[in-house]
Amino acid sequence: MNHEVKTDSLRPMTDIQIRQTRAFVSSLDAESQTYWDMVNIGEVLSRDLHITPELVILYADAVEDYNPWYEGWRMNTWHIPGESPFGGAIVPPLLVSHFVLSVQFDHTKPFAIGSIHTYHDTEIFEPIPVGATVRISARATDKFIKRERRYVRHEVTVTGVTTGTLYLRETRDILSR
C-alpha cells in the first residue's frame, strides 16, 4: 500500500508546504470566530503602505494594465519620475483597494472563516503618485441582516501620510456566516 502524501499535481508542494497548509487548515477550526463576532461598530484599523515603483509594476503586470502613466521604474535605470497628465507616474487607481483586506481583518486575531466580500463602491478623488506612502483606514460602520444573512459594512479611506490628501474612499460589505 502506498502511503505517499498526495498533493495537487498542478501545484507540487514541498514537505514544509504540506505541513504549513495542514496546520493552517487545522487552525481554522481551533479558535476562529465569525467576522460578525470579531468586529465592533466604530472600530478603526489602519496601516501605512509605501507604494514603490516595483509594487506598481508587479500589480500592473498581474492585472495586465500596461499604461505608461504608471511607469516609475525602468530596467537598468530603476526609479524614474515617470510621466502622466498629472505630472509624474501615478498608481493604478484600484491598486490600494487590494490592500484593504489586510487592514479590515485584524492580523492579531485568528482568521475569520466564512466571510465573503459582497459589496464594493469606490470613489477616487486624486491620483496617487508613485512613491507615496498612504494610510489605509477601515472603520466598521454597521452590522445588518438582509435575507437572514449577517453583513458588516466598512467605510475605508486612503490618505497621504505626509500630505493628508484624501485619495480614495470605499464602502465595503462583508457577508459573515
Descriptive report:
With 177 residues, the protein is α+β, with helices and mostly antiparallel strands. It has a domain at 32-52 and 93-176: Hotdog Thioesterase (Thiol Ester Dehydrase, Chain A), CATH 3.10.129. Helices cover 20% and strands 33% of the residues. It contains four helices and seven strands; from the N terminus they run ααβαββαββββ. It has a five-stranded antiparallel sheet with strand order 1-5-6-7-4. Strands 2-3 form a two-stranded antiparallel ribbon. The longest helix is centred in the N-terminal third of the chain and has 16 residues, at 15-30. It is globular. The mean pLDDT is 86.
CATH topology of one domain: Thiol Ester Dehydrase, Chain A
Q: SSE order, as H and E? A: HHEHEEHEEEE
Please state the structural category. Answer: alpha+beta
Number of helices: 4
Largest sheet, in brief, is: 5 strands, antiparallel
End-to-end distance: 40 Å
Helix content: 10-25%
What integer is the average pLDDT?
86
In the CATH hierarchy, what is the class of one domain? Alpha Beta
In angstroms, what is the radius of gyration?
20 Å
Oligomer: single chain
Sheet with the most strands: spatial strand order: 1-5-6-7-4
Q: Tell me the total number of β-strands.
A: 7
Quick one: overall form? globular
Low-confidence stretches: none
Draw up the topology in text.
Elements: H1 15-30, H2 35-38, E1 44-50, H3 53-62, E2 73-74, E3 78-79, H4 100-104, E4 115-124, E5 133-146, E6 149-160, E7 166-176
Antiparallel strand pairs: 1-5, 2-3, 4-7, 5-6, 6-7
Task: Summarize the model shown.
By secondary structure, this protein is α+β, with helices and mostly antiparallel strands.
